[in-house]
Design brief:
- The structure is a single chain.
- Helices cover 37% and strands 13% of the residues.
- It has helices at residues 2-16, 33-36, 42-46, 50-54, 74-86; strands at residues 21-25, 62-67, 96-99.
- β2, α5 (74-86) and β3 (96-99) form a beta-alpha-beta unit.
- It is flat.
Length: 114
C-alpha cells in the first residue's frame, strides 16, 4: 500500500539522503481546465517555483530534472545559475536539466503539466 511504501521511504531516508539521487520536479497547478483556461500567464504561475526548487542543488548529491511548461530561455537559466553560484552552490549547471513538452503548442492553452 501507499502507506507502507511511504513508511519504508521515511525509515530509509537518512541513509538515502547522503547518496547521489535525482530530483524530478514538475511544477503544476492542478486545477480543472474550466478554471485555468482564462487565467492570464497561467504557465508563468506554474513555473514560479523554479527559484526555490533549484535550491535543492545545494546538496551536491542532487541532480535535477525540471519540467517546465514552456522552453526556458538560456538567459534565464544563466541568471539562476549565477544566483546559485553567488550563494555558494557550485556546479549547478551541470546537475540540472530543463525539459518542456515537445508538442506543448498542440495542447490546449493553460493546461496543467500533470
Amino acid at each position: 500500500s501507499w502507506r507502507t511504501v511511504m513508511q519504508h521511504f521515511m525509515e530509509t531516508w537518512p541513509e538515502r539522503s547522503t547518496q547521489p539521487r535525482v530530483v524530478l520536479h514538475i511544477p503544476s497547478l492542478s486545477y480543472i481546465y474550466a478554471l485555468t483556461r482564462d487565467i492570464p500567464y497561467f504557465n508563468c504561475f506554474q513555473n514560479a517555483q523554479m527559484a526555490s526548487r533549484l535550491c535543492d542543488l545545494n546538496d551536491p548529491n542532487v541532480t535535477m530534472i525540471y519540467v517546465t511548461p514552456f522552453p526556458v530561455e538560456r538567459a534565464v537559466v544563466q541568471y539562476y545559475m549565477k544566483i546559485l553560484a553567488a550563494s555558494g552552490i557550485r556546479g549547478a549547471e551541470d546537475r540540472v536539466t530543463f525539459l518542456s513538452p515537445e508538442n506543448i503548442m498542440r495542447l490546449p492553452k493553460n493546461i496543467s503539466l500533470t
